[in-house]
Amino acid sequence: MPSIAEMVLFSAALLGVGLALLIWQKARLAARVIAQFLITIALPLLLVATVAVMLVRPLLPDLDPRVSQAMIAGLVIAIGWLTTTIFAELENRRERAEKLRDTHKALYAEIGTTLDGLLNHEEHVSRILQRMSKEKDYMPFIPREKHDYVYDAVLERLEVLPRQTIDAIVAYYSQVKSVTLFAEDLRSDWVARAPQETRILMYKDYIQMRIQAFRFGMHALALIKAYSDGGVKGAEAVITEAANNQGGAQFARSQGSE
Questions:
Q1: Who has greater pLDDT, 39 or 220?
Q2: What's the per-residue H, E or C state across 20-33?
């Protein structure tokens, strides 16, 4: 049967292993599980066992060998639980990181390929507005667009995205969907019957909504790339920089407040 000093040395060794793992960057997750194990299971059991030995040892010089065997069996079970938990946590972390990476890549590709189509050239818009002012019956053709196929496909797993990017991504796609709905209104019969002045104002609003969607998309792309290259710190740097300009200030306020 181990003495009290040996048990204390064993607990100190466990704590030393935990501290060493905390220093080792790649084993932070394992260190967290070990620390949880030490605090919630190992140390309380060790304390109870120490107190029990201190109380019983003066009365029983030699404990029953079966007690020692039971303690060894308990230690083996605890180590097995600890190992299983560490590997389970590591696998969950790996799967989550893979889903996050794949989701970011898919959304980055979709946003990047649609931004050019969202931003209308100023000269083209100016010519349309001039023609609308001169021709009271003229209404420009508004094509049907859908820029959120990938977003709709991954909507159920958006929770894997970090807070540094999810707000910007959701804001962009919300704006894109609003543009799509507004375009449907512009093609409606009641707009066709509306006064030209009303239609001009609506078309201007439509263009401004597309410009805002473009800005949101650029901000989302910057955050996704920064997170991919530099993790949380890289994305936080973009958020901080965005707070200094009008296009990204609202994102920085919403994300920086968390």
A1: 220
A2: HHHHCHHHHHHHHH
